[in-house]
Design brief:
nine-stranded antiparallel sheet, 23% strand, Beta-galactosidase, Chain A, domain 5, 35% helix, five-stranded antiparallel sheet, alpha+beta
C-alpha cells in the first residue's frame, strides 16, 4: 500500500464517513462506517487526457507536477472546493468535494474548462485503488455494466465509483498505466484493488466548460453500494449539495451566538465548530483526537482514538459553544466504556471497543468526571444528571481508592503526554477536579456522605501539592513525585544525593524511582486551568506560569513548547499549550497577552483555518496532525473566555 503523507490539509465527512485530503485535492484516506476505522482508500487519482496530442499523449493527473492549486471551504460549511490549473495544457478544473449528511455518499463534482482559444477533445480519467478494510489482499474490483460503475469490495464493505455520465472505457485491475494512456482494456472483474474509468468529454471549444460528477458510495455489500449510487444519480449533485449546505448552516445555528470582529478569528472559530462534528461519531457520540495520519505508528501511537482526556476538553468546548445534545451523547458513551470498578482505560475506538493501550492514565478518569460536572453546570439538565450519576459514583469512588497512602497523590500512571510514569501533578489536578465536580453533583442529589468523602480525598491531595511539591530552585511546582527512571539514571541520582526509592513487585521485578521530578512542564498550568486546585492569584501559581513562559517560549516562531528537551516531532510549540497559557492569562486579567496568544494561533491556522497539533519551531509551518481536535477545543475555550470577560474585541 502507498505510504500516505503524515500531513493532510482538509477534512470532509458526515460523522460516519470521514475523508482527508491534501491541498491538491487528492483523497488520502477514507474512513467508513466509523470515523476512526476501517480506512479504505489507497489511491484515487483524477486527471485529463487531451486527444489532440496524438498517440504519444498521456493523462495528466491533477495532483502531479504542472498543476497549481487553490483551495477553500464554501463559507460556513464542510464543502471543499479545489481549483487546479495547468497553464501548459490550458485546462482548469474546479473540484467540489463533500459527504452528504445521513447518506453514504461522497460527491466529487468536477467542472472542466478549456482555457485555450482552440478546441480540444478531452477525456476525464479516474484511477480508483481501494485497499478495502486497509488490506492489500483479498479485495475484488469489478465493472457493473448495468449501473455503469466500478465496485470494490471485501467482506462486509463495498464501494461503488460511478458518474452521472456513462463511461466510455473501463478496466478492472492493474489499471494505472492504462489510465495514463487512456487505453483501458475492458477487463470486467479481478481479485485486485484497483481499476479505472474514462469519460469522453467530447470536443470542447475555446473557453468551453463541461461538468462531470463522480460519486463514491458505500454499502455493507455490493447491492447496498450500488443502490446508494443509484440514489446519488437520481438526486443529482445540485440537490445533494444544497442538502449538505443546509445541514451545516443549521448545525452552526444551534451554537451560541458570539460576536467576533476579527474575520480570521471568526473563521477559525467557525471551522473549529465544524471540525468538532466531523470528528464526532454519529452513532456513539465519541470524539477522536484527530484523523489518523500515523497508522503504522512511525512516530506516535496513532490519533484516531477517543481519549477521555482530549474528549473532556473537546466536550467542554462544545458545551460552552452551545452543543449540549452532542456533548450529552458523548458522556453517555463513556458509561459503556467504564470498567465495572469505575475506572476508564487509556483509549477507545468510537464504537466503544478498547483500543491499543499502554495502561491506565488516571488523569483521563478525572477529566471525564470534571467534564460531566462542567456540562451539568452549564446545562442544568437533570435528566442528564440522573442518567449519568451511576457512572459518576463508580468513577469517583475508584479515584478515592487509587491513592498512594504515603503521598496522598494518585498512584503512579503514565502522564498526559504518555512519556513517563509517576505521580504527576497534572494527573493529581485532574483527579482533584473530577472529585470536586463529582462532590458537587452528589450534593445536588443529597448524597452528602459521598460528597464529603470525595472532598476529603481531594483536599489531602491539594495539601500534599502545597506542602511537598513546591520547588524554590526552579520557581515552579514539581512535575511529579515518584518518577520511574532507568537503573542508570537512578544510580546517578542516588550518588548525587537525591532522594530515591526502589519498588519490587510480587514477581521480583524492580521499578527505580526518583522522588522528585523538577522539570518545568506546560501541564503544570493544569493545577489551575482547568481544574482549579490552586488559585490563579496565588504567588506560587503566578510564579509557575512565569517560569513556564520564560523557559518554554519558542525563540523563533513564538508559542509555547511542552517542556525543555522535548524531542517529539522535533520539540515544537503546540497550539494547545500556547492557548493554555492564554486561558491562564484570562483568569488573572492579563487580557492583552491572552489576545496575543490567540492571535498567534490564528496566524498559524492553515489556509482552511484548521489548526495543527504543532508548529515547526524554525519554519512556522504545520508540523504534525491537522486538525488536532484538542487544538480547536482550546481555541473555542479561549475565544469564549475572552468574550465572557468582555475582552474579545478590545485589541
Amino acid at each position: 500500500m502507498r505510504k500516505k503523507p503524515y500531513l493532510t490539509d482538509a477534512i470532509i465527512g458526515n460523522s460516519k464517513m470521514l475523508a482527508t485530503l491534501t491541498k491538491d485535492g487528492q483523497l488520502q484516506r477514507l474512513f467508513w462506517p466509523n470515523i476512526d476505522y476501517p480506512q479504505h482508500a489507497n489511491r484515487f487519482y483524477t486527471g485529463i487526457y487531451i486527444h489532440n496530442e496524438g498517440e504519444g499523449g498521456a493523462t495528466s493527473f491533477i495532483h502531479e507536477d504542472g498543476w497549481e492549486h487553490l483551495q477553500s471551504y464554501e463559507e460556513d460549511t464542510n464543502i471543499l472546493v479545489t481549483t487546479a490549473r495547468n497553464f501548459e495544457l490550458k485546462v482548469e478544473i474546479t473540484q467540489t468535494d463533500f459527504v452528504v449528511p445521513g447518506m453514504d455518499i461522497f460527491v466529487r463534482d468536477y467542472h472542466v474548462k478549456n482555457q485555450s482559444s482552440l478546441p480540444n477533445r478531452m477525456s476525464f480519467i479516474v484511477y480508483s485503488d481501494f485497499t478495502v478494510d486497509d488490506r492489500k489482499r483479498y479485495s475484488t474490483v469489478m465493472f457493473n455494466p448495468v449501473d455503469d460503475c466500478l465496485v470494490h469490495y471485501f467482506r462486509q464493505y463495498a464501494f461503488a465509483v460511478g458518474s452521472s455520465m456513462d463511461a466510455a472505457q473501463y478496466q478492472s485491475g492493474s489499471a494505472l498505466e492504462a489510465a495514463r494512456t487512456n487505453k483501458l482494456s475492458g477487463k470486467v472483474i479481478i481479485n485486485k484493488t484497483d481499476g479505472a474509468l474514462s469519460w469522453d468529454l467530447g470536443d470542447m471549444g475555446g473557453g468551453e466548460e463541461k461538468r462531470l460528477t463522480v460519486y463514491i458510495t458505500a454499502g455493507s455489500n455490493l447491492g447496498g453500494a450500488v443502490s446508494c449510487l443509484a440514489k446519488a444519480k437520481e438526486q443529482g449533485p445540485d440537490e445533494l449539495h444544497d442538502r449538505t449546505a443546509r445541514y451545516w448552516e443549521e448545525y452552526l445555528l444551534q451554537g451560541r451566538a458570539i460576536h467576533i470582529e476579527d474575520e480570521k478569528t471568526r473563521q477559525v472559530y467557525t471551522r473549529s465548530l465544524l471540525a468538532f462534528k466531523l470528528l464526532n461519531d454519529e452513532e456513539t457520540g465519541a470524539f477522536i483526537a484527530g484523523p489518523e495520519v500515523d497508522e503504522d505508528y512511525d512516530y506516535s501511537g496513532g490519533y484516531a482514538y477517543c481519549w477521555g482526556r482530549d474528549a473532556a476538553y473537546i466536550a467542554t468546548a462544545a458545551t460552552v459553544a452551545g452543543y449540549h445534545d452532542l456533548v450529552s451523547k458523548f458522556y453517555y458513551s463513556t458509561m459503556a466504556t467504564q470498567r465495572d470498578d469505575g475506572a476508564w482505560e487509556h483509549r477507545f475506538y468510537t464504537n466503544g471497543m478498547l483500543a491499543p493501550t499502554w495502561g491506565i492514565q488516571i488523569d483521563e478518569g478525572g477529566s471525564i468526571l470534571w467534564g460531566i460536572h462542567k456540562h451539568y453546570e452549564i446545562t442544568k439538565d437533570d435528566i442528564f444528571l440522573n442518567t449519568i450519576w451511576p457512572s459518576v459514583e463508580k468513577g469517583a469512588n475508584y479515584l478515592t481508592m487509587f491513592i498512594d497512602l504515603e503521598t496522598h497523590l494518585p498512584l503512579p500512571t503514565n502522564d498526559l503526554w504518555e512519556k513517563r510514569e509517576g505521580e504527576h501533578l497534572y494527573s493529581t489536578a485532574a483527579v482533584y477536579g473530577g472529585l470536586i465536580g463529582s462532590a458537587k453533583l452528589a450534593r445536588k442529589l443529597d448524597r452528602v456522605d459521598l460528597a464529603e468523602k470525595w472532598e476529603r480525598t481531594a483536599e489531602r491531595m491539594k495539601k500534599t501539592v502545597e506542602e511537598r511539591c513546591w520547588n524554590e530552585e526552579t520557581g515552579s511546582y514539581l512535575r511529579a513525585l515518584k518518577l520511574a527512571v532507568d537503573e542508570k539514571t537512578f544510580t546517578e541520582a542516588a550518588l548525587a544525593g537525591k532522594e530515591t526509592v526502589v519498588e519490587e513487585d510480587r514477581k521480583g521485578y524492580k521499578t527505580y524511582r526518583l522522588m522528585e521530578d523538577s522539570v518545568v512542564d506546560i501541564s503544570l498550568l493544569g493545577l489551575n486551568v482547568p481544574f482549579g486546585m490552586i488559585d490563579e492569584n496565588s504567588e506560587r501559581m503566578i510564579k509557575t506560569a512565569e517560569t513556564i513562559e520564560r523557559l518554554l517560549t519558542s525563540p523563533v516562531t513564538g508559542g509555547l513548547e511542552r517542556f525543555p528537551g522535548d524531542v517529539y516531532i522535533g520539540g515544537n510549540p503546540w497550539i494547545l499549550t500556547t492557548l493554555w497559557m492564554a486561558l491562564f492569562d484570562i483568569k488573572i486579567s492579563n487580557f492583552e497577552k491572552a489576545r496575543a496568544y490567540l492571535q498567534w494561533a490564528v496566524n498559524n491556522a492553515n489556509h482552511l483555518c484548521l489548526l495543527p497539533e504543532q508548529i515547526h519551531k524554525e519554519t512556522g509551518q504545520p508540523a504534525w496532525v491537522m486538525p488536532l481536535t484538542w487544538s480547536h477545543a482550546m481555541f473555542v475555550l479561549t475565544v469564549i473566555a475572552l468574550e465572557e470577560a468582555g475582552e474579545l474585541n478590545n485589541g
